[in-house]
Amino acid sequence: MANLVYFNGLLRHEHEVNLSILDRSYLYGEGLFETMRATQGFIPFLQEHLSRLFKGLDLLQMHLDISGAKVEFALYQTLHHNRLKNAALRMTLSRENVDVGDWEPGENTNLIVVARPLPRIPPRLYAQGCSAHLVEDYRIAPDRLCQVKTTNYLRQLLAWRKAKEKGADEALLTNTSGRLVEGATTNLFLFDGEKYLTPSLEEGILPGVTRQILIDLMVKTRLPHEERGITLDDLFRAKEAFLTNSIKEIVPLTKVDNQIIGGGEVGPKTQHLMQLFKEDIQYRFERFESRRWGVENVV
Ligand SMILES: Cc1ncc(COP(=O)(O)O)c(C=O)c1O
Predict the structure, then answer these.
(1) What is the mean pLDDT of the chain?
(2) Lower CB density within 10 Å: C or N end of the chain?
């Protein structure tokens, strides 16, 4: 079956979508995107993704003519028409130039949604943990641009490629102060024996949706945690570490280059959060289902 793509209000076959050579995400990396996971036909953190997207729209001074509800409809429509339940959805927003070399964009913002079956994630990543390679060549200078998900992903892409060359699963990036920031496509958490630690927004991280859900769960269940600058020393002394993103969710991190983190195994503090996260998705799913069937109105 051909893949159907949502493009500005219509579902089309993938090869029928013609993005202009004047598209500014192609010319300048001026565009925004969100990658989200659908589980059993449900996108559990849709509102959180939309809220990050709208912050990005503000910063890039882009306008979207349709409401959040219509974007939601576009996402579910793409999912359903591709007959997918467990999927990775990518939504991209971009504008076009009127002519090559223009600085002023044209009026319209393109909205594209692509749905793919959830990529196969090797079970060993969850059972034994993943490995990372520390990449210090592409240091992040923290600024407002770090906080939105633009289509300029060169830093992360080059770092990830370096990590792959070293046989690692993920790259770990540092900022201009030499502190740890995040992975190429993941946020970083440690457990130092007493509390969970994660780099604060000021360090130059992307405010990950999964990261924020976990912080909210820690607050709700009163788990000690702190957002602050994280040094390499913190990492190598940590009892446990894990990485988070919307597709892989929570992946234990047990090795960085040649150094084993903690006991080199998936620790109980990571497992505890994996369980809380799973329950949170289940809770959201049940609420979604009951709204869908109108059960909330039945006493
Ligand atoms: C640089 C970077 N940091 C963190 C994340 C994790 O963010 P989220 O949990 O919203 O997927 C991503 C996701 O792609 C990312 O690209």
Answers:
(1) 95
(2) C
- Ligand 1 centre to CA of 209 (Å) is 7
Q: Which residues of 148-166 are buried (b: 16+ CB within 10 A; e: fewer)?
A: bbbbeeebbeebbebbeee
Rg of the chain over all Cα atoms, to the nearest angstrom: 20
Q: Which atom of ligand 1 is nearest to the CA of 149?
A: 16
Q: Is the C-beta atom of 198 inside 6 A of ligand 1?
A: no
Q: Which long-range contacts (CB under 8 A, 24 or more apart) does 193-198 make?
A: 193/239, 194/224, 195/223, 195/224, 195/225, 195/226, 196/223, 196/224, 196/225, 196/226, 196/269, 196/273, 197/225, 197/226, 197/227, 197/228, 197/230, 197/234, 197/238, 198/225, 198/226, 198/227, 198/230
Contact 277, 214 (CB under 8 A): yes
Ligand 1 pocket mutation, candidates 185, 212, 247, criterion most atoms within 8 A of CB: 185
Distance 152 CA to ligand 1 centre (A): 13
- Please state, as a whole number, how many other Cβ atoms lie within 10 Å of the Cβ of residue 281: 17
20 in Cβ contact with 50 (< 8 Å): no
For 182, the 3-state DSSP assignment is strand
Ligand 1 neighbour 140 (Cβ under 6 A): no
User: Residue 26 pLDDT more than 50?
Assistant: yes
Distance from chain centroid for Cα 107: 28
Question: What pLDDT score was predicted for residue 27?
Answer: 93
pLDDT confidence of residue 114: 98
Measured CA to CA, the distance from residue 84 to residue 98 in angstroms comes to: 37
Query: Cβ distance 93 to 62 under 8 Å?
Result: yes
Q: Say how many Å lie between the CA of residue 148 and the centre of ligand 1.
A: 10
25 in contact with ligand 1, CB cutoff 6 A: no
